[in-house]
Write a structure and sequence with these properties.
Order of helices and strands: HEHEHEHHHEEHHHHHHHHEEHHEHHHH
Distance between the termini: 37 Å
Helix content: 40-55%
Number of helices: 20
Structural class: alpha/beta
Shape: globular
Radius of gyration: 22 Å
């Protein structure tokens, strides 16, 4: 089973470690405090471009993009700075407080929210009214802000889709048809039940990992996460309780490694060792298995992600934000568009397991090529690209579902799955704690 949180993590860990959440309330100033730059009509000046731990692996690629831009616009000088992943959000806060944000900055979903909510990013939809058509709709929409109308506050960069990976041999041993992978959460649980019954403890269906599974599984089951005003969690529903009941039953039957409920095991190692039927939902995982477990890779199959009632996956993009008060707006905006254009994103995808958020880039023939249909990495690339074309925000983890909210929900789920409290109580208590955290955050 694959989950939206897995993809979010895959993006933030493509070239770095997990970004640490920070409280942004110390960032001084809001939208009214930061003067908004205006275009001059001249693409010129020195701008700073910050990326997130792309050196040294991607130095040649990024420098090539910069060199080509400077050749096209000889009056522009791009100063590239690359910073470590550890403490990245904290550095953004410090730079914002000091008025030292770079002109063009690489942002994850979390760091985009951090700066965007405080009015520190330029509205690129206003700067370039026609540019929206250049990007996959789901990725463009992702960089809107609640209460900001149609404004878009970053150019989408690269994305990673959610897919389904599974071990064909173990599928067949469990009496399942590899040509018919699950498409709903409920069906996925039915398959896991059959796997547990057939395995005799020799292998498991999937990792318990409630933090990685939620709220994605609930969204796919049609469970509402927030109310219409987006200010309260409302997931305490019979469907959510049903999810906990199924997880509890499957856990007791051995469908998941017991230890995976309370700690993060190395899923790549378990899958690569033939001990797990369903692998992670990231195309990058397929590449890892190809390199590290070729025998298991040979029997790995790829399909579209479980989407359930939604019918589509979520979309999580890295982005390039433009500092709202940059001194060289024309140069900064043109450079951000240049980095995220179709050809440059396609070239990046040849160096890393990522996909373009740019519609022209995603339409490149390499993303539709399935080869002979037998190589999992090639198929994964095509399946992922196809799913990205219809990806939408309603499958994303809401920004209100913070790490703290996730931890609070997971604690209650773990108790229920282990049998220490009943599922209905677990969901009710989880919602109560989540809403307390949400209210506390709103008061800051």
């Amino acid at each position: 089973m694959t989950r939206s949180n897995v993809i979010r993590t895959a993006l933030t860990t493509l070239v770095t470690g997990m970004l640490l959440p920070v409280c942004a309330c110390g960032v001084s100033g809001g939208a009214a405090d930061v003067p908004e730059a205006r275009k001059s009509g001249k693409v010129a000046g020195e701008i700073t471009f910050r990326t997130l731990q792309l050196k040294p692996k991607f130095t040649s690629y990024v420098q090539g993009v910069i060199d080509a831009f400077e050749e096209k616009y000889p009056e522009v000088k791009v100063r590239w700075e690359d910073v470590p992943g550890d403490g990245y959000n904290e550095k953004l806060v410090a730079d914002a407080q000091a008025g030292a944000l770079p002109d063009v900055v690489n942002l994850s979903t979390d760091s985009f929210q951090l700066l965007g909510d405080r009015g520190l990013l330029a509205d690129v939809a206003r700067l370039d009214p026609e540019v929206a058509r250049e990007y996959v709709p789901g990725s463009w929409e992702q960089f809107k802000l609640p209460g900001k109308g149609d404004g878009v506050y970053a150019y989408p960069w690269y994305v990673t889709p959610e897919i389904l990976t599974y071990n064909r041999e173990l599928f067949e041993k469990s009496g399942l048809d590899p040509a018919k992978p699950p498409t709903t959460v409920e069906q996925f649980f039915d398959y896991a039940d059959r796997i547990a019954a057939a395995s005799g403890g020799r292998y498991s269906a999937f990792m318990a990992d409630p933090k990685g599974r939620l709220p994605g599984d609930w969204q796919k089951m049609g469970v509402p996460i927030l109310n219409e005003q987006q200010d309260r969690f409302v997931f305490d529903t019979p469907k959510a309780v049903e999810w906990v009941e199924r997880m509890k039953d499957l856990y007791a039957k051995g469908a998941m490694p017991k230890e995976s409920l309370l700690k993060s095991d190395d899923i790549n190692q378990l899958y690569g060792g033939g001990k797990l039927v369903f692998g992670p939902g990231s195309p990058g995982f397929v590449k890892d298995i190809k390199q590290n477990a070729p025998q298991v890779y040979a029997g790995t199959r790829v399909a579209g992600a479980v989407t359930g009632t939604l019918g589509h996956i979520g979309i999580y993009a890295q982005s390039l934000g433009v500092k709202k008060d940059t001194k060289h707006l024309d140069a900064a905006a043109e450079f951000a568009k240049w980095v995220t254009n179709g050809p440059n994103q396609v070239e990046f995808s040849k160096n890393a397991t990522i996909y373009p958020s740019n519609a022209r880039g995603l339409a490149d023939p390499r993303f539709a090529d399935r080869g002979d249909g037998k190589d999992a990495e090639t198929v994964a690339r095509a399946v992922g690209a196809e799913q990205l074309k219809s990806a939408a925000l309603d499958a994303n983890t809401p920004v209100q579902w913070t790490n703290q909210v996730g931890d609070a929900v997971v604690r209650e789920m773990q108790k229920a799955i282990q049998g220490d409290q009943d599922p209905q109580t677990a969901v009710r208590k989880a919602q109560e704690e989540a809403n307390q955290l949400l209210a506390k955050s709103a008061r800051k």
